[in-house]
Write a structure and sequence with these properties.
The protein is an alpha+beta fold and 564 residues long. The protein is built from 21 helices and 15 strands.
Length: 564
């Protein structure tokens, strides 16, 4: 690939602005049967690696946590990190335009800013010569690290998705308080109408909770979270697994904006009904994330549509406040009974977003050796379990978390994470997924069936028992019920920053963010008129041409991943 001139790139970025492609919540696990000896390399001379992440990280304490200190001891490396405020990647175009970079960058969906400007170096030879653990970690998926059919360099080491990850529990999209379910006698919750009825029935009985007005349902429409809480649910509730803003035809690989499907229209019609009947929080589309979290933490929000990680902080706050009965159950809810939740549809290893080493790095070899240490068995155990004798013990060959440590992980998670560093580094660096065992026969992550069940609150256990399940995943359709997606996850396919796709998408995104709230809040008699106008606005913005071009990117991804 020929790198574009920086001036040309800057002009394109000035037109486009900062990309705000959907961010998916990072999986908080990380491991698998890793290889390797724990070695940070022969050179332990102190070195500081500068790092920028387009994700936020409220728990970062400059490696002063126990795991961070041990990483420095083992490798000589200290990470000087900067994280985007609230997950915004607006700093990335400015960084590229200046030509001044940190050593490592996690750019989310904007890695092509750095590749097109020549800011990321090709890692192929570095991995081959200095990173046996990384090679073992990615194994047969190394082909998926290649940038494109035209340029088979490796510019990014994927970190968003864990390798060989076997989901052992469900995060869910539709959440309802345990207290609601208990009082209503644990009713059947299969469709949005079931969900709605439970919220309505409980709210009528309890118009206030702890002296504050009860909120039957709220969403988080603040910034990029709009996609997670408002629009992604339209896809998941109609029998599809997540591909970002697109629906991908499994036969032709044709991409189209999922909003243009009649199924999406019907889902938003239901939200419009929820608004019209007073069940949807009137502040949904004006509240900020901190306000959203404060409402949930108060215990007066009966239902939430969001990824579980999207409101983890207020959930922890409810536990700490002794209101664990006001935390939430999860269900694979669908618009109607004609579809089934495809959350566990297999996308293979989706590669995609990760860290790149920039041309500003003075010692790329040392950096790749550090990343390789993190991919080693020792490194993976350290990042996931912490320090033996402090955060876990080994009894009869099995790693065990002491009860007091487990209690803090569950009920004082933020403080525990800041002190221990456990899980703090998993989303930053290469990792294995849940369900895989190391050379000793232990799981790499602490997220395995027995531990998952041990983490459940008493209310969660009672709810699961009432629905005949041991884990939330037991309620979901199994992965074998769906075909494997050969394109992985479409939201990880990033078009060039100055392409028609990227420029048109920016216009499309503005239309979606403006029109969808108007449609949901409108009088029901105006719903179809407004939705028709919404589709026309998308077409006028060039959506159909964008879809055709994105379809070619999907087909190219399938071709790249399936050739040797």
């Amino acid at each position: 690939m020929k790198h574009k001139k920086r001036l040309s790139l800057l002009l394109a970025m000035m037109t486009l602005g900062a990309s705000v492609l959907a961010a998916c919540g990072s999986d908080d696990s990380g491991n698998s049967a890793s290889s390797g000896e724990g070695s940070g390399g022969d050179d332990l001379k102190p070195i500081t690696i500068t790092y920028f992440s387009a994700d936020s990280n409220a728990n970062w304490v400059n490696m002063e946590d126990a795991v961070g200190k041990k990483l420095t001891e083992k490798t000589g490396v200290t990470i000087q990190a900067e994280f985007a405020v609230d997950g915004s990647n607006q700093k990335l175009p400015l960084m590229v335009a200046s030509g001044e970079y940190p050593d490592l960058v996690y750019a989310k969906g904007d890695a092509n800013l750095f590749v097109d400007s020549g800011a990321f170096i090709d890692l192929t030879d570095l991995i081959e010569e200095h990173a046996a653990n990384l090679k073992k970690l990615y194994g047969d998926y190394m082909n998926r690290l290649k940038w494109s059919n035209e340029d088979e360099s490796i510019y990014v080491i994927p970190t968003l998705n864990a390798v060989d990850h076997q989901p052992l529990d469900a995060g869910g999209n539709f959440h309802i308080q345990h207290e609601v379910l208990k009082e209503l006698g644990y009713p059947e919750i299969r469709t949005v109408k079931d969900f709605e009825k439970a919220l309505k029935d409980y709210a009528e009985k309890h118009p206030t909770i702890d002296g504050q007005p009860t909120i039957p349902l709220t969403l988080n429409a603040d910034g990029w979270r709009f996609m997670i809480s408002v629009t992604d649910a339209a896809v998941m509730a109609t029998g599809l697994s997540g591909d970002g803003e697109y629906y991908i035809d499994p036969e032709t690989y044709e991409a189209k904006l999922h909003y243009r499907r009649p199924e999406d229209r019907d889902y938003f019609r239901w939200l419009n009904h929820m608004s019209a009947t007073g069940l949807l929080d009137t502040e949904t589309f004006v509240q900020k994330t901190d306000q959203y979290e404060a409402k949930i933490a108060s215990g007066r929000v009966l239902g939430v549509i969001d990824a579980d990680w999207g409101f983890g902080n207020p959930t922890n706050a409810l536990r700490t406040a002794g209101k664990e009965n006001r935390t939430y159950a999860r269900f694979p809810i669908q618009l109607d009974e004609t579809t089934k939740d495809a959350s566990f549809q297999d996308a293979g290893y989706a590669a995609g977003w990760g860290v790149g080493i920039t041309t500003s790095a003075k010692d790329p070899v040392r950096i790749i050796k550090f990343l390789d240490y993190l991919a080693s068995e020792e490194g993976q155990i350290l990042m996931n379990w912490g320090i033996e004798g402090e955060h876990y013990d080994v009894l009869d060959g099995k790693r065990v978390i002491p009860e007091d440590v487990q209690d803090r992980k569950v009920n004082d998670n933020a403080s525990f994470t800041q002190e221990s560093g456990i899980g703090l580094y998993n989303s930053l660096f290469p990792r294995y997924g849940d369900g895989v065992k190391d050379s000793t026969g232990n799981y790499y992550t602490t997220n395995f069936p027995e531990q998952i069940m041990a983490n459940y609150t008493s209310s969660a256990k009672a709810t699961l028992k009432a629905y005949g399940a041991k884990t939330w995943k037991d309620l979901w359709p199994k992965s074998e019920e769906f075909p494997v997606k050969p394109w992985g996850a479409a939201y990880l396919i990033s078009p060039p920053v100055d392409s028609n796709i990227a420029i048109t998408y920016k216009r499309v995104e503005e239309i979606v963010r403006k029109r969808i709230p108007e449609i949901i809040l409108a009088d029901p008699s105006q719903f179809d008129v407004l939705y028709d106008q919404f589709i026309q606005d998308l077409n006028d913005a060039g959506a159909e041409k964008m879809e055709r071009e994105y379809s070619e990117l999907v087909r190219s991804r399938v071709q790249l991943w399936n050739h040797e």
